[in-house]
Amino acid sequence: MEDKMLLAVTVVVLLVVLSKLKSFLAAKPKLKLPPGPWRLPVIGSIHHLGTSPLIYRALSKLAQKHGPLMTFHLGEVPALVVSSPEAAQAVMKTHDISFADRFANSTLATLTYDRTDLVFAPYGERWRQLRKICVLEMLSSGRVQSFRRIREEEVARFMQNVATSAAAGATVDLTKGISKFVNDAFVMECVGSRCKYQDEYLDAFHMAVLQTSVLSVADLFPSSRIMQMLGTAPRKALACRERIQRILQQIIQEKEEALDRGDKTAYDSILGVLLRLQKERSTPIPLTNDTIVTLMFDLFGAGSDTSSTALTWCMAELMRSPAVMAKAQAKVREAYKGKSALTEDDIAGEELSYLKLVVKETLRLHTPAPLLLPRQCRETCQIMGYDIPKGTAVFVNVWAICRDPKYWDDAEEFKPERFENSNLDYKGTNFEYLPFGAGRRMCPGVNLGLANIELALASLLYHFDWKLPDGMKPKDVDVWEAEGLIAKKKTGLILHPVTRIALANS
Question: 31-499: which CATH architecture?
Fold first, then answer.
C-alpha cells in the first residue's frame, strides 16, 4: 500500500513539474541565434582563439566559415561578432539605439571608474551631456585649430631630433620617436604646458592598457565571486587607475592654482576648457573634479596611442612600397619646393591630396582599434533574421571588413590610389570603411587624431629620405600587430634617415 501511495505521489509531482516546464517553454520560445563555432562547457568558444594571438584575426577566420553575424561565447559571456558592412549597418545604424550601450568586462569596468567615464558610460542622459561637452567644447574644429601652433612646434622639434641622427649617420627607432612626438603634442593640447608628471602618467597608462591585452578569469566569469577573487587583472587595473587618478588630480590642482594666480593662459588647453566650464557652472550636469579626471583619462587613452599607432603604420607601409613612397615624397616636395618648414596651412591645400590618401589607406589596413570598442545589446532585437538577446556583447570586426575581397580589390595590398575617385570618408556612413566607428558611439576625436598625424607625416617625407638597415628589403618590414585593444606594430620601425631638405634652424 505504501509503495503504491509513493508511486502515486511521484507520478503527480512529475506531472506537475512537466506541466510547469511546458508552460515555461511555451512562455519563452527558443531564440534563433546567429550561427557560431561549437563550444565547450564552462569556457565557451575561447578555445577557437588559439589559431592566432590576435583575437580579430582569429575571429575573421571563424566568420569566413560561420557568417558575418556570428555567436561567440567568451566563457559565460555571450557575444556577437559582426564581420560585414551589411551587418555593421544593421547594428550601428538601423538598430543603433538597441546597441548604444558599451560592453565592459571586469578589467575595463575597473579602469573606467566603474563606467562613469564617457567612452564606456551606459547610454542615457548623463552620457549625452558628457558627449555634448566633448563635441562642442573639447574637440570642436575650432578647438582643434587653436592647437595648431603646438603641433607645428612639436613637429619642428621632432624633425630636429631626426636631423641630428641623420647628421651622425645613425639609425632612428621611428616608433619611439613618433610615440614621443604624439605624446608630447597631446599633453600640450590637453594640459597646455610641459608636464613633469608625463613620463609617470604614460607608464601607468601603458600598464593599464597591458591589462586589457588578455582575457582574465574574472572577465570570462563575471557572475562568479570565486573567479572575481582569483582574478588578478582587475586588482592590477585598480592599482593602475588609482595611480593615474593621483597624477591627474595633481595636474588639475596645479592648473587651478595657476588660474587663481590670474594666469589666463591656463585656459588655453582642453583641461583649461573643462575648468572654465566648471567655474561657470554652465553645464547641464556638474563637472566635478572626478568627472574631469575621467574625461582626461578618456582623452589620453583614445588620442595618444591611436595617433602614434596610425603614424607608425603609415611609415611602415611606405617603406614596404617604394613606388608609393617615391610618389608621396615627389608630391610634397614639388608642392613646397624652397620651403624650410611646413605648416598646417600648407597641408590644408589640394596639393597634398595624395598624402591624405596614404593616411586613408593606412587606416584601412591598420585600423588602430580593429574591433572598435565593444557595444552591448540594450534590448532583445532581431538582426538579419536572427535574435540577439539583451546583454550580448557586440564586436564589430572592422579589421575583417576592411580586408574583405568582396568589397576591396587586392584587399591585402597597400594602394592609396583606390581612394582617388571614392566618396569613402571618416564620417561613419560607409560601412565598408569604419576606422572611427559609426552611429551614436562613433569616436568624437577624428579631427584631433588626423591633425596629429598629417603635418608630421608630410614633414617626415619632405625633409628626409628613408633607408632600411643593411640587408633588409621592403618585404621584410614586419606587419604583425602587438596584442591588445590597440593594434600597434609588434616590432619597432628602425630606419636610416638621410636629410634631403635642411631644416630652418639646422
Answer: Orthogonal Bundle (1.10)
